Amino acid sequence: MYKKITETPVEKVLFIGGGETDFGLQGESDAAIYQVLPILNGLGYTITVVDDNPYSLALESPAATGILKTLTVANIKKIIQDQQIDAVYPLFGGIRAIRLWDQVVAEWRLEDGQIPQSLGLAAADLHQINNGTQLFQRLDEAGLGVTASAVIQTQDEANELLRELELPLVVRAQKPIQGTTRQIVDRLDDFDRVVQQVMDQSLTNEVLIAKAINGLKEISVLVVRDRDGNCLQVGAAEDMDPIGIHTADSLSVAPVLTISDPVMQKMRAQAFLIANMIGLKGVMHVQFAYDEKTGKIYVIKVSPYLDQLANRMAVMTGYPVMLVAAQLAMGIRLTNVYLPNAFHQKTAIMEPVMDHIVVKLPVFPFGDLDASNITVNRQLNSVQKSVGSALGFGRTFVEAMEKAIRSAHFNNRSFSPKYMADVSDDELIQQLIHPQDNRVLLLIEALRRGYEVDELAELTNIDEFYFYQLKRLIEIERSVDQSNKDAQSLRMAKKSGFSDGLIARFWDTDFQEVRQLARSHDVIPTYKALEPSAGEFPEHERQFFATFEEENESEPVDNQSVLIIGPGAFRMGDGVSAGYMTSITLSELHRLDYQTIIMNNNAADSTLLPHLSDKQYLEPLETSDVMSVVDLEKPHAILVPGNRKKLIAALTDLNQNVIVFPKEKHHPARPEAGQSEFCLNFFYDGQTKHPLVILQQRPGESRLLKQKINSDFIDDLDLSSPGLYQVIWRADIDTWVDQVSLPNLTVDTWLRPMPYGHIAYLTKALGMPLGRMVVRAWVDKLNEADRKFLAKMAANHEGASLAMVTSDTDYALHLQPDKSLDMTRFEMGAKLVPFESEQADGEK
Amino acid sequence: MANKVVLDQDSMQRALTRITYEILERNKGGQNLILVGIKTRGEYLAHRIADRLEQLEQVQIPVMAIDVTNYRDDHLDAKDDLGLEPDEKLNIANQNIVLVDDVLFTGRTTRAALDALIQIGRPQAIALAVLVDRGHRELPIRADFVGKNIPTAQNEKIKVKVKEFDGEDSVEIVH
Amino acid sequence: MERHLILEDGTVFSGQGFGAPATTFGEIIFDTATSGYQETITNPIYDGQMIVFAMPVVGADGIHAEAYESTAPTVRGVIVHDLAEVSTNRQRRMNLDRFLQHHNIPGLYEVDTRKLIRHLRETGPQKATIVDVVDDHAVDQLVATVLTNKQVQNTATPKAYANPGHGFHIIVIDFGLKNGILRVLGDYDANVTVLPYTTTVDEVLTLDPDGIILSTGPGNPEDLPDSVLTLIRVLQTKVPLLGIGLGHELLALTNGAALQALPAEYHGMNHPIQEIISQQIFYARQGRGYVIDMDSLDNKKLFVTHRDLVDNSAQGIRLRDYPAFSVQFFPDGAPGPLEANGIFADFFETVADYVQKNN
């Protein structure tokens, strides 16, 4: 009998989270999962999320069951059985979740029962993605350009291949234990060492060696595909830097500017072909290399799962990539995707078009490490060194780039023009060939010293378009420098993305004067809406960036608006905690019926998710940018991170209602060896101080004590504003303890606001919405239930058997530091692990 | 054994689309039309054509299937069993029948199907639609609608795969 | 040098001049595609029009020999936000600035193009002029100017020519043909004859074509002489026929359908087009000022094969009784996605079928 193809309807879905933050994974997995939960819940799916990341918002979402468990095969199996899961969606958890799910599938036994469906990619295709060579063989057979490669298991085989393919070669681990790293070998001397190193990174001691294609252009294409093979291109971006530098460490530009239409269309067609080939239902990032001389296109990486580009494209284009991808994975057709009212009804099926330029700049940890006298290898290559990234939005490349530099690198010493002037000519050439983090400034410096565009283009393999743009920037700088505070050069400088502060430096004045001058000459930003139709349709516009043109599209939000200044790009030690706390703040203020406005430039966390705020400004966070938004919006209150002293002072001067995020910029240094640091945590509601729990910190790990605290101990502390605080002291204890004797408050301790990382940790460990409560306290909206809750907490101290452990980041691989790093201070991320027994695991 | 894909999913879809348009053209619309799929894959193809006609004309075209494996003149144990369910025996009298098969080769399958159909009733006309015509006819039979002409050698085999049955859409030459 | 764009409704936009310093008049439209500015500027369908690019930076890829859609562009102006300077050297002999100078076309950059596009999406296309000075004279000139409706005459070939190949004999009737169509026909090794649109049925049929293509072209199809419709009316019953763009509009008119001018034209490549029969969607370059009035469509003669899912307009039609079909969008890309390339494959299959049955 004839039957149409039917699929078993999916009801209970398990999302596997991305786990702890590290090189290559910031907050994007969690942001993606967090964003789609309410929609999927609304569509009738029952969702469970598993993760062990303390900064996970998804685990706290009311739209899903959050399970805080270590990401292991056994735990996933158990959750599937306990929750009667019928489908698993690993693709939003990135490559780590894919590996885990692939392993679960491999280890699934008959007695485990019916294996859940694998959403987004069938288990077999997912397995193939996990094993790169099989996939590339298929691509090769389908006639796509791939580089010659082979898998080897011994040094002898490697040497054989070396003779066959010749240097430079890309060497990478097959079935890697951790994240994938590709290393490019261009010196014979390094070959043996790298092969050995990579072999150790492989579960199976297998090494993939491929011909390197350094110097070619690198282009990223992001596409979605539905169950019926309908494909849509979300967008494409080009790296300014050629292949050879990790894409995360490159300056990247969207839309693509220097590649012709026929080449772009070929890449698009290839991306669609690959999506069809693997039967993808969801989003996929394909990286291509393009050889301008031969016209040949190579596929260099296929990522049919959520990675940073997906989130970034969503912010850059206004296309809701994650909402669409998740629904496609559920088997919904592209034409039937449901979007909330905030989107134009045709948004899901229209390819987004950008009428603005976005530049992404990586953020490197070198400056922070330098300040601690740690020297690392700064040379950029195929191994990622950046820890975060920031976006600059503009209507020209120069404007977007200047804004990206200001977003990514403010307060970074190596980004000062003065530092560049000190670089010798020899060093300059060296660094042009072996680029470092200050790449852009170096290129500018080379142009300043009279190097020709052709010459530089050949030396660096960077398209000459970029050099013409940088030359323009130099000319603008020069004319600003030579002019004397005139309106025309001021307008030109502002149009090119300069901050008031930078212009002030040229004119030996302060930013306030530049600001006044600009206003008196009517040089005022016009905010352009960022929306996916490039002006073709009126959209529900809520995302804006500043430029200096004729029409301003941003209407101020009415009364009761709160402006929240975002934390910007990730930096070491921050982890994802600042993004977590900012998002909680947005969510809670929204719940309290405030109109919220966020300013930020980091697409790798949840702070810019459209549903979290009423309006988003995609801007640098320097004083002049903030002041312009304040001038327009006249917010009821402004929430500013505590480390932004200059901004706080400037806003206070203007009689703005400033609420300071009591931000601890970095995790403090770890206690000395043999010592423990104790934090007595308490909540001050403005009247009463409620002790919560004592936390013991030893290098790289924190645990909670089971100790009742008498509130008398902290009664005498003098606090000016409500919030979460910690009393800190150290003791010579080198084991984990359940109880500790309290110190003399006046002598041995100090007081600080609770770091965000601890707020996230305690929220999950104690099952109390501490983040939300502290926001309520800031705006004086604590309710009776909160106070009761707090009173109860003080009386009841079980603690919880969850430890927060710093990520085991492979600094040796990424940064090659000259001494060991303080894993607390330079934390990349953390995870929560049970420390007594699996049964005591903190299930929500 | 190297298989060569001669029609991929996309071109197979397009071939079916074109056949559908041509059926409409020839038949002046969907009136009095019945699609008869020859089992196994012809049946799926007939349904796909019917789905397409429905998308275009908002009419439901009846589809029936016949199994002629036991009905061919080159089968020694040929029987008069069409494998039809009783409720599937549509009244084909005065209807325009389009017989749908995956591959047209010697013509013997088609002939068997024609014999069978004429036993059931007296249609107005019978036309033949095939996804692939590979040549080497042994009987005077010609397809009215051809998705793709694929000249083949006698010793080659054509393998048609349909998503509903084989998990994918493709036509391959098997050496 | 500062120059200005004046719209018929009196709105003025200012920017910096590039390209030729000429003063021109034309109908202003906007384009939302993010690639292929050279192909777009050289596409004859934009004869007599001024194009505003939504793409904020235009020119970064220079001008390439393989990206011409016609030898000489006949647009009246190019308006961009940011003009990318690129050198002219051995690899790139031309850049956009020099290219426009050479063809005496004025350009304007540093224009708030987003504001202009948001304005035009409300008003629809209108008359406009690019001038050095905004004064009463310039405005009067604009008001007094009557734009030509002879765009097809301006761009289509007056004489027949051949583009030989070894395959099927395809006759292209030229209404302002874009090169992309010839490029694809070359891929099929077709033996191509391009005929002027003033050709007659006899001239076409004596050449013994295996298939006919009604080409793309500029302007309003209703401005063309009735002889064109007569020609198509006969040809569509004789040989397989494919209409593209203007050719599609003409096939519709020939078979009794009426056209409607769009309130705001659509020029871009981001609208989903659905093939109705398979429900599949794809994207293709579109450039259209007219759509078929669906109420006028005689369902006994024609049916709709494709539609734009954003505005539900008919994007493809097919005759019921003959192998003649047409698409509004450009299946050859140039610029634009290649997903609709299959339209040509279908056409050639139809041609092959026709040839086989008639031999």
UniProtKB/TrEMBL annotation, chain A:
InterPro entries: ATP-grasp, CarbamoylP_synth_lsu_oligo_sf, CPAse_ATP-bd, CPSase_dom, CPSase_lsu_oligo, CPSase_preATP-grasp, PreATP-grasp_dom_sf. It catalyses: hydrogencarbonate + NH4(+) + 2 ATP = carbamoyl phosphate + 2 ADP + phosphate + 2 H(+). SUPFAM superfamilies: Carbamoyl phosphate synthetase, large subunit connection domain, Glutathione synthetase ATP-binding domain-like, PreATP-grasp domain. One of its GO terms (biological process) is pyrimidine nucleotide biosynthetic process. Residues 136-330 form the ATP-grasp domain. One of its GO terms (cellular component) is cytoplasm. The keyword Lipid metabolism does not apply. This is Carbamoyl phosphate synthase large subunit.
UniProtKB/TrEMBL annotation, chain B:
Keywords: Glycosyltransferase, RNA-binding, Transcription, Transcription regulation, Transcription termination, Transferase. It catalyses: UMP + diphosphate = 5-phospho-alpha-D-ribose 1-diphosphate + uracil. CDD domains: PRTases_typeI. A motif (PRPP-binding) lies at residues 97-109. One of its GO terms (biological process) is DNA-templated transcription termination. Its EC number is 2.4.2.9. The keyword tRNA processing does not apply. GO terms for molecular function: RNA binding; uracil phosphoribosyltransferase activity. Residues 7-156 form the Phosphoribosyltransferase domain. Homodimer and homohexamer; in equilibrium. Regulates transcriptional attenuation of the pyrimidine nucleotide (pyr) operon by binding in a uridine-dependent manner to specific sites on pyr mRNA. This disrupts an antiterminator hairpin in the RNA and favors formation of a downstream transcription terminator, leading to a reduced expression of downstream genes. Belongs to the purine/pyrimidine phosphoribosyltransferase family. PyrR subfamily. This is Bifunctional protein PyrR. It comes from Fructobacillus pseudoficulneus. The gene is pyrR.
UniProtKB/TrEMBL annotation, chain C:
SMART domains: CPSase_sm_chain. Keywords: Amino-acid biosynthesis, Arginine biosynthesis, ATP-binding, Glutamine amidotransferase, Ligase, Nucleotide-binding, Pyrimidine biosynthesis. The active site is at D332. The keyword Cell wall biogenesis/degradation does not apply. Residues 1-131 form the Carbamoyl-phosphate synthase small subunit N-terminal domain. Residues 1-168 are annotated as: CPSase. It is an enzyme of class 6 (ligase). GO terms for molecular function: ATP binding; carbamoyl-phosphate synthase (glutamine-hydrolyzing) activity; glutaminase activity. It catalyses: hydrogencarbonate + L-glutamine + 2 ATP + H2O = carbamoyl phosphate + L-glutamate + 2 ADP + phosphate + 2 H(+); L-glutamine + H2O = L-glutamate + NH4(+). GO terms for biological process: 'de novo' pyrimidine nucleobase biosynthetic process; 'de novo' UMP biosynthetic process; glutamine metabolic process; L-arginine biosynthetic process. HAMAP family: CPSase_S_chain. Small subunit of the glutamine-dependent carbamoyl phosphate synthetase (CPSase). CPSase catalyzes the formation of carbamoyl phosphate from the ammonia moiety of glutamine, carbonate, and phosphate donated by ATP, constituting the first step of 2 biosynthetic pathways, one leading to arginine and/or urea and the other to pyrimidine nucleotides. The small subunit (glutamine amidotransferase) binds and cleaves glutamine to supply the large subunit with the substrate ammonia. Composed of two chains; the small (or glutamine) chain promotes the hydrolysis of glutamine to ammonia, which is used by the large (or ammonia) chain to synthesize carbamoyl phosphate. Tetramer of heterodimers (alpha,beta)4. This is Carbamoyl phosphate synthase small chain. It comes from Fructobacillus pseudoficulneus. The gene is carA.
